[in-house]
Amino acid sequence: FAGAALLPGGICKFSVWAPFRKQMVLSVLQPQQASYPMVRDDHGYWHVEVDNIQAGTRYKYIPEDGPPLPDPASRSQPEGVHGPSEVVDTHFNWTDDTWQGLDLQELVIYELHTGTFSSSHDFQGVIERLEYLRSLGITAIEIMPVAQFPGSRNWGYDGVYPFAVQDSYGGVKGLKQLVNAAHQHGIAVILDVVYNHLGPEGNYFSQYGPWFTDKYKTPWGPALNFDDAWCDAVRGYYIQNALMWLDEFHIDGLRMDAVHAIWDCSAKHFTAELSEKVYELQAALNKKKLLIAELDLNSPRYIAPRQEGGYGLHAQWIDEFHHALRSLLTGDLNGYYADFGGLAPLAKSFRDSYVYTGQYSSVRKRNFGVYPTGRDYHQFVVFAQNHDQIGNRMLGDRLNSLLPFEAQKLAAAVLLLSPHIPMLFMGEEYGETRPFQFFTSHSDKDLIAGVTEGRKKEFASFAWEGEVPDPQSEETFNNCVLSWETKSVTGTALTELYRFLIAFRKTRQAMQHTSRNSVKVYTPSTHLLAVERAGKDDKVLLLFNFSEHPVQYMHDGEGSLEKKFDSAAAVWNG
Amino acid sequence: FAGAALLPGGICKFSVWAPFRKQMVLSVLQPQQASYPMVRDDHGYWHVEVDNIQAGTRYKYIPEDGPPLPDPASRSQPEGVHGPSEVVDTHFNWTDDTWQGLDLQELVIYELHTGTFSSSHDFQGVIERLEYLRSLGITAIEIMPVAQFPGSRNWGYDGVYPFAVQDSYGGVKGLKQLVNAAHQHGIAVILDVVYNHLGPEGNYFSQYGPWFTDKYKTPWGPALNFDDAWCDAVRGYYIQNALMWLDEFHIDGLRMDAVHAIWDCSAKHFTAELSEKVYELQAALNKKKLLIAELDLNSPRYIAPRQEGGYGLHAQWIDEFHHALRSLLTGDLNGYYADFGGLAPLAKSFRDSYVYTGQYSSVRKRNFGVYPTGRDYHQFVVFAQNHDQIGNRMLGDRLNSLLPFEAQKLAAAVLLLSPHIPMLFMGEEYGETRPFQFFTSHSDKDLIAGVTEGRKKEFASFAWEGEVPDPQSEETFNNCVLSWETKSVTGTALTELYRFLIAFRKTRQAMQHTSRNSVKVYTPSTHLLAVERAGKDDKVLLLFNFSEHPVQYMHDGEGSLEKKFDSAAAVWNG
Predict the structure, then answer these.
(1) B436 and B350: one domain?
(2) What is the pLDDT of residues A354-377, one digit of tens each?
(3) Contacts of B219 (CB under 8 A, 6+ apart)
(4) Average pLDDT for residues A160-179, to the nearest whole number?
(5) Is residue A115 part of a domain?
(6) Based on the domain organization, do B59 and B142 belong to the same domain?
(7) Which residues of B touch A (CB under 8 A)?
(8) Beta carbons within 10 angstroms of residue A503's beta carbon
(9) How confident is the model at residue B231 (pLDDT cuts 50, 70, 90)?
(10) Of A108, B55, B170, B396, which has fewest CB within 10 angstroms of its CB?
(11) B569 CA to chain A: closest CA distance, Å?
(12) Cα separation of B542 and B285, whole Å?
């Protein structure tokens, strides 16, 4: 256990891990200044219990040679990442007792960034749109990381207090209000958590102990220490973090950022230990809890059950589905899209989830991936857009800024009629034209310069023209706030199309089946993808025409076919 | 494929992987000088086929900017690690057609170092003792690495030509003669192979291509590239190497050095790919082939079947059994022995193979290991001594130089009556008193100084006294050559004890059962280990008394007991 916990009777227990420190003092800063020497236990944790501590108390820890440091397990940073930590009251009047969580098969995910979702830039702004999302058919919102980050403008992946909820979003209480309200609307909440790195600013971890190891090199510097000497505290910290969200915050699932960058070659992979603990929590609460990995490895081991030698996560993201769809629709073959292009990769992903299942990747310069044998379709999350695939374009332009209207509708249909779990990115359902760009509000000048430089470098292998927007500029952030201008004819039609497709997905029996033998995939021509989905007493034939012209297709299955949907019909403004 | 292969009709095909090179020329040096430009294929391999090439032809490869380099896949280095490579005739008159190989359960392994096994320092010297080993009951010899290393004195872990057999040992032909002769004696041959690093001298690999990656840090510098861009050639090279030994050389099994240092976080671990190919070879040849890992990870994933999510290796070494036994017998608690001591760790290893199955290790500073659920005892190789555990002591002193005679007999009994696979180190069976020290014959001066320094540093955490022997001195090597002085009374008794125990192990029905439920382990007192081994209609009670005095033990099992063996009896010179 790490952090500051209010116990009954006004006692507060403070604990912090600093195994190599010779001394550690709790320094209370508000409401009254006071110092309390801490005592080290055998595992390198320092503890002290203090009477008469109220929520709102601000504190730091002072090691033998100073200076005072914020708490790595801080629950609140009301003065930002460099300021004191704050003791938090975890009590909340929950009204979601009957909520049970969702199964993977029920998910229609809506990814959102709290800061740019609404003009209030906070959780309250999300709460106000829950009714709209419910009416659209969304069953889960996925919130980009909320752990305290530097300033008020950040995607969230620069967070440095994994236990603290970003103050500018509404803090601990604001997030609980959102989760409670979502559950009232029948909407699950998935939280994006970052366990593979910590942000560059406000990162005091190395001053406490061996949080990092140089066994492995990562894009963000030395790797977090998940398997080297002293790793137990690091593993325990992140497991405690996951359980906090799922238990105290009633969060229904975690989307774990870049799990391939959690370097752990020990006998029990961190994610396997995590899933074990989450299964225990789920059993204790009798509520469904989901673990979804972002994973740049076509390795089903992560999502296989532990009893089959897997790590026991529930699902993983499939960027390859996106890349296959995007390069087919746009013809883009730059950068990592060079591994895709044409209809075949999309057909492969429809059939096998992974596009690369062992064949040579010209981008990775190696044979890549294995077959996801035994893993059902609903263990894979797909998307036509997401924060990365939009925001990591130089101008952050959305798919609907790049594609004609008919192609936008086609993309929506491919996404929502897929047997995989579909995920939308906020605004795509009404054809938002504002970009989603990379933005920060760091205070360290060198870092600001480095980030700007890094963005330019990142786009070097793409042949994009124009200026890279300045991540640090407030204007960049403001440009990305959703307009919610939903009154255009095409925008309205698009929203209705999403609504129809989600409803069709949820209600048509053949669409419920997500085992691998319930789906057949054909490519009758270079531009036509045909997918048969079969239920017990139901069959659906899906035809996706990627040419600009109508095509004829003779289906030789049994029985007669009834046309249920045509994205080019007049009703969809076609 | 890489290397030089003689094809029918006197043609020789030369292939070498050098993906970033602009030019590559085959330079034939003997019998006549000649140059042949090579052609690059899509995967970065350069090829040329040349007429009228005989075995014995010497060659190098010359890249665009020189200088000439030996072949990384050289089959022979008659002038040492810096000299030209030699084309080899792979034909051999095998007479072991009826040999089928052995199952794990049949193994009684004898580890030997070819250079110090006999006064001829070569394979012939081993052949001459095969009859003796057979009469002792040994069923497999395990040969320390034979890949060409610098000079003529080396343990073998500094090898830099994994496909070449050390010339001073007898080369390709000498090894084949040994394997053939061993099979005539009913003895299997296990070869120690090093796939986790390459030696420091004569290592021209980086001049050819991306053999190494800086994703991972190893004790020997950058890691071999098993999962980064361009890794397919590296993986393929080592798989080709394994198949060469098992197929062309009729080797029965590979002992793979430090498999934990084969860094591969991709979807299919290198060892899983290797085991897949070895299973295919085994099926094609209809001969048993074994893969045994040295593994400093208590991770049964490596030895679980691939269909259970494992990597499919057959067995792994258990250093912990050794450490538990050694620290119990000698009271040594220095260095890594600090994690052991007392009877409990040995009892744990007898019961669970691994000593650490998740509990905290004070040496590793973390919770370590998981239970080897589902893995039988015969998947674990144990030893009371081996090259490392002797040779990595400062003076290379053997257990019998450290223990009284009665304790030596006890160690032998613990080893040979264990349900695990037992492995002896050459000479232990007659109480050899010569040491087994670390020796080298490098030619690079800086390296020589570095190795000497490194040895001293390695012993810093142990409280040993005296001078570290000079690894580079020929005298050090000579001191380690087995004396074969077997005429002492205790030496003779020891040999007979080993012979008796091996025979008992092989013939007594209860000793054949190696599933986990056939063994029960008790510790009735702090110095008494009691082990029940049960067969279908047979039971054996093993009592190991680690005190200096007789102890009484009341066994409450059914039936009456008949004493079969007492290591302190007069017949064993007790």
Answers:
(1) yes
(2) 999 999 999 999 999 999 999 999
(3) B261
(4) 98
(5) no
(6) no
(7) 214-217, 227-232, 260, 263, 265-268, 297-301, 304, 308-310, 358, 360, 364-370
(8) 13
(9) very high
(10) B55
(11) 44
(12) 40
- Retrieve residue A405's tokens: 């209207």
Count how many domains chain B has.
3
Could you tell me if A541 and A433 lie in one domain?
no
3-state secondary structure of B36: strand
The domain boundary, picked from A66, A86, A106, lies at A86
On whether both B495 and B383 belong to a single domain, the answer is: yes
Mark whether A265 and A330 lie in a shared domain.
yes
What is the least distance, in Å, from the CA of A218 to any CA of chain B? Answer: 8
**The tokens of B364 are what?**
């590793």
Rg (CA), chain B: 24
pLDDT band at A571 (very low <50, low <70, confident <90, very high): confident
pLDDT, tens digit, 9 for 90 and up, residues B419-437: 999 999 999 999 999 999 9
User: Which residues does chain A have within 8 Å of residue B368's beta carbon, measured at their own beta carbons?
Assistant: 266-267
Interface contact flag, A229 B268, Cβ < 8 Å: no
CB A316 within 8 A of CB A381: yes
pLDDT tens by residue, A29-58: 999 999 999 999 999 999 999 999 999 999
Domain with A51 in it: what CATH number?
A: 2.60.40.10
Structure tokens at B34: 């000649």
B353 within domain boundaries: yes
Task: Indicate the residue type of B277.
Answer: K
Residue range B480-517, pLDDT digits in tens: 999 999 788 899 999 999 999 999 999 999 999 999 99
The answer to whether residue B176 is domain-embedded is: yes
The predicted model gives A268-288 an average pLDDT of 98
Q: What are φ and ψ of residue A521, in 5° steps?
A: -125, 130
Residues B498 and B520 both lie in one domain: no
The answer to whether residues B239 and B270 belong to one domain is yes
- My answer on whether B64 and B114 are in the same domain is no
Residue B542 is part of which domain span? 516-572
- Which of A86, A257, A388, A429 is an active site residue? A257
pLDDT band with cut points at 50, 70 and 90 for residue A456: confident
Amino acid of residue B539: K
